[in-house]
Amino acid sequence: MVITTSDDLSPRPDVLIVEDHRLLADGLAASLGDEGLRARVLVPARADDVLTAAQSAAPGIVLLDLDLGLPDGDGTSLVRDLTEAGAAVVVLTGSRDVATLGSCLLDGALGVARKTDGFDAIVDLLRAVLAGRPLPGSAQREELAASALRARAERRRVLAPLERLSAREAEVLRALADGYAAETIAAMSYVSLTTVRTQIRSILTKLGVNSQLAAVAMARRAGWLERSSALTM
How far, in Å, CA of 3 to CA of 121, rounded? Predict the structure, then answer.
């Protein structure tokens, strides 16, 4: 974790800039200083660094980049934790993924500052948050949040059949996705081939598909394979 500050005498900065690009962050901090806003820069090595810095510095705003290149998460996954810890979060991003940005707002972020918006727009947003004034771009924020709600609803719909699988059926489906044949799955898990074939038929029925390939394709499209537990044969 590396922290710098544009005002080392200030125990409580107006803005804590969380950004993995040092030059960009330092330039932004200097520009905010010119506007009378005290800023510190955090270049985190891990996600916990962000939470620790936000709690210790107690800034007026955490200006959080979403793409931090961390080994244990990204800015998107930090929004909820920061807001639950009492931080006022403004997302700083170059992304135009409305579902992602809307999800950040649903998780508690007060606003979204796009890196392409220009410095004046970012300052206006930060000043509004610090002053407790109505934020600019409320219609845009509502649209982003609505898009995120629709995306979450669609994801729940797609995942619903997969979440009806039993723990054992989930293991078998993951094994099929990893390229194992039914005979190999039976041998690895010390059960009969008949048992595995019964489990596969149950998987197909619950998912409403007619083949193992279709079941695996459905799991991949839904992102279920990435979020399901590791195979334990």
Answer: 25
Which H or E run includes 43? strand 39-43
The CB density around residue 178, as the number of other CB atoms within 10 Å, is 12
Identify the pLDDT of residue 140: 66
**Which domains, and CATH codes, for the chain?**
2-150 (3.40.50.2300), 164-227 (1.10.10.10)
Q: 22-76: per-residue pLDDT in tens?
A: 998 999 999 999 999 999 999 999 999 999 999 999 999 999 998 888 888 788 8
Q: Which helix (H) or strand (E) holds 89?
A: strand 89-93
Compute the distance between CA of residue 62 and CA of residue 13 in angstroms, rounded to an integer: 10
Contact, 74 vs 66, CB < 8 A?
yes
> Strand 39-43 vs strand 2-5: parallel, antiparallel, or unpaired?
antiparallel
Residue 227 amino acid letter: R
44: alpha, beta or left? (left if phi > 0; alpha if psi -120 to 50): beta
- Residues 77 and 62: their CA atoms lie apart, in Å, by 14
Full-model pTM? 0.63
Q: How far is CA 64 from the centre of its chain?
A: 12
